[in-house]
Amino acid sequence: MIVFEHVSKQYSQDAYALKDVSLSIADGELIFLAGPSGAGKSTLLKMIAGIEKPSSGRVSVNGQDISKLKTSSLPYLRRKLGLILQDQKLLNDRSVLSNVMLPLVVTGASSTEAEQRARIALEKVGLPDKAASLPMALSGGEQQRVAIARAIVNRPQIILADEPSAFLDRENANKVLGALKAFQSAGVTCIISSHDEQFLDQASRVIYLSQGQVVNTWKSSLAA
Ligand SMILES: Nc1ncnc2c1ncn2[C@@H]1O[C@H](COP(=O)(O)OP(=O)(O)O)[C@@H](O)[C@H]1O
Ligand SMILES: [Mg+2]
Question: Where do the ABC transporter domain residues begin and end (predicted)?
């Protein structure tokens, strides 16, 4: 369960990136975070991960107040989260497989176990045959699915994806979204930001942001 209570974020004194946002997201939901560029989508996602802290208000994940977490406790939170953020590029000097293994290696898994789990993650996103490739040799859509594999290799409870379908054509965007939806079907909470309205009807709920405020939220009638 993710809860925002009267959360505001100001990067500078007179400009709000988020303004008095209150919302709650239950376990297992597939949420689309919609709204134009600059609306505050990335800021909202970064707050769930503790990357940005609220200027006022409270963000909690599973009952734990994120802003009260010590820096040393952040890795424990992050382990519950699968992050697909825009500034976390794949490393081009190593294979797809070792990119996906990285989060496991960092947390001290043995290389045998890391490789095994990374291969399973690549299978789940439909790219088992790209393990040995360099990221640069893959299409944009495939690279985005590698980023998803890397995000889920720690078996997170919550996936945060910031504009995962940006710059992709419809077919590749569908594949990326399909991969994310498969995790939601398996019980993982997914929060996906997008300014692309063509996918909104696939969400269990759409939260629409404008100028840092939630201006609309609706449940999709078409959602599976
Ligand atoms: N690190 C930052 N420093 C200053 N302003 C920022 C920073 N990050 C975001 N902003 C501002 O906050 C607002 C919301 O940004 P953002 O959350 O990135 O929106 P979105 O992801 O919906 O495009 C924008 O006006 C943006 O310029
Ligand atoms: Mg953004």
Answer: 2-223
